[in-house]
Amino acid sequence: MGRAVTVATCALNQWALDFEGNLDRIVRSIGIAKSKGARYRLGPELEICGYGCSDHYYESDTLLHSFQVLEKLLESPATQDIICDVGMPVLHRNVRYNCRVIFLNKKILLIRPKTALANAGNYRELRWFTPWSKARHVEEYFLPRIIQEVTGQETVPFGDAVLATKDTCLGAEMCEELWTPNSPHIEMGLDGVEIFTNSSGSHHVLRKAHTRVDLVNSATAKNGGIYIFANQKGCDGDRVYYDGCAMISMNGETVAQGSQFSLDDVEVLVATLDLEDVRSYRAEISSRNLAASKVTPYPRVKVNFALSCPDDVAVPTCMPIQWRYHSPEEEISLGPACWLWDYLRRSKQAGFLLPLSGGIDSSATACIVYSMCHQVCLAVKNGNADVLADARRIVNDETYIPEVPQEFCKRVFTTCYMASENSSQDTCNRAKLLAEQIGSYHINLNVDVAVKAVVGIFSVVTGQTPRFSVYGGSSRENLALQNVQARIRMVLAYLFAQLTLWARGMPGGLLVLGSANVDESLRGYLTKYDCSSADINPIGGISKTDLKNFIQYCIENFQLTALRSIMSAPPTAELEPLVDGQVAQTDEADMGMTYAELSIYGKLRKIGKAGPYSMFCKLINMWKEICTPREVAAKVKHFFRMYSVNRHKMTTLTPSYHAENYSPDDNRFDLRPFLYNTTWSWQFRCIDKKVNAL
């Protein structure tokens, strides 16, 4: 009898509404799976249309084009003699569902709708889809005519069912269903399902990979079985990066691991596993077997097909492996770099421009672009024809081969140091040296002429000339003069992004990169419409603490020695006059709090769901060794005042790579008002009462 089953899963770099490209990548993945002997192929969630279609799911066009792609897949020779499991939206009785469509040899076996929808953080599935709430219930789905003409079927099963092949039983769950307390795989396993599949659209968050891997492995640790996990990868048109990590697990142990970050648009993972290992594993778990005897059975769709061969005793099977995790510094180096590459090639621009100040944040952004160049050269060296074609189109040279990261960086990356009379020579030198080491095309310019012209207009109109506070000006004057410098830099950044390549006799334009970190955004320590305003920001979801560790990683792994002096220098905006030629302004003094404190406030506010009073109650215990309750109260009040005063800046925040779960991104992740009563009178009074009691 058949014992060894060969199954395939994949990570695909799908793009929202790119039906042609998505079809091509799906077909390629099926071809690779078949060439490696697989008899079943699983793809990512909503892979036909791309996961990030958002309100385009409301459009009938999205449904129509998804079925047109399904028609092409059913007709393709590549899909013959292999069970194909693809994801797409389906309208059933005027209700939209997020579905798996499972087919074999031009026949649809089952349409399985998602039963638990992701609706927290970056996810809004309940906005577009309805969960299937009829457990173990199947209805007839009337196929569109274009599909009927291919399959010869008028109706197919639609609902919560499993597939029974000649040799085993398969059950599907989708993304969020794995994360729910009562996941479908639990009762499926008790009902004899031996192979569980999970198609996901799961995005990268720093330090999250182990959670996903643990969930997959634990799914079969108590109940036995084979678990196949597929995921999207890349930037499909939004702030998140889907980080692959396709995997296959059996009886609680990983047997195949896909990459978390890569520039490969199609990655296929194949494993051959012995079904008898599942059966023997389950045989000795008496508690499982007792529960199985009482379970309500699932409807079974019979499939006249086997995932194994009759004579497979000599077929080698896969052995357990140890999952290899990236460090947070490696994740920062690779995730945003892959996201930038997708954004660059899909926007059809010619490169990036970065205002490089010589500080940690802009230097970290420059290092991420350098890491992207490194990844491109590595992919081309490994024979990735897609990456080579994209690189040639970006640099406008059909014979070009990117081999050295610094040389490729020179072609696609422009850095610009924008000096003013308040800039120090130290930051200028640091920016120049880093640009030399990564290979960027570097520009030095001075903004003083433009700043004086703008302030001059104000003086002509009002008859008043504002002064910095060190020269006797008020705090309002001081802040306004800093903001003018910052905003002039944004205007110049866009001017140079549009025309630098034109001035060099090269085609195309550049994308402007921002470099405000997640902590500064949370505190609002940035000028609205300054250089934090850009096209995209690869570090906008990363904390200052993690960026410092990333800089150290780049010193050690990329040999960027220019970063040593950047690491040791205190962070400063350099917007106020120098004192004896030295910087007198520092970020932490300006903010009235440290970056370490900001990270704690951010996690308590967003992840801990803490308002002012709850945050105070938590911090008096966390900081009892270093602060009195009255000092903690003062810190909490100052944070919430500054956060609420500046929250309006989040409405215009540059789209940033999502990397932290305490991101203040106002787009859809962190939904808050932007006009607050900044006195917080009731909340602060509760804190004061507690302080007095203590």
Account of the 3D structure:
- This protein is an alpha/beta fold and 694 residues long.
- The protein folds into three domains: 4-302, 4-Layer Sandwich (Nitrilase/N-carbamoyl-D-aminoacid amidohydrolase); 328-446 and 497-575, HUPs (Rossmann fold), CATH 3.40.50; 592-693.
- The chain is built from 24 helices and 20 strands.
- The strands form three sheets. Strands 1, 2, 3, 4, 5, 8, 9, 10, 11, 12, 13, 14, 15 and 16 form a 14-stranded mixed sheet that branches. The protein has a four-stranded parallel sheet with strand order 19-18-17-20, sandwiched between helices.
- The protein is globular and about 90 Å long.
- The protein starts with a strand and ends with a helix.
Q: Quickly give the CATH architecture of the largest domain.
A: 4-Layer Sandwich
- Tally the structural domains: 3
Q: What's the overall average pLDDT, rounded? A: 94
According to CATH, the fold-level topology of the largest domain is: Nitrilase/N-carbamoyl-D-aminoacid amidohydrolase
The CATH superfamily of the largest domain is known as: Carbon-nitrogen hydrolase
Q: How much β-strand is present in the residues?
A: 15-25%
Principal-axis shape: globular
What low-confidence regions span 5 or more consecutive residues with pLDDT below 50? none
Structural class determined from secondary elements? alpha/beta
Q: Calculate the terminal CA-CA distance, rounded to whole Å.
A: 74 Å
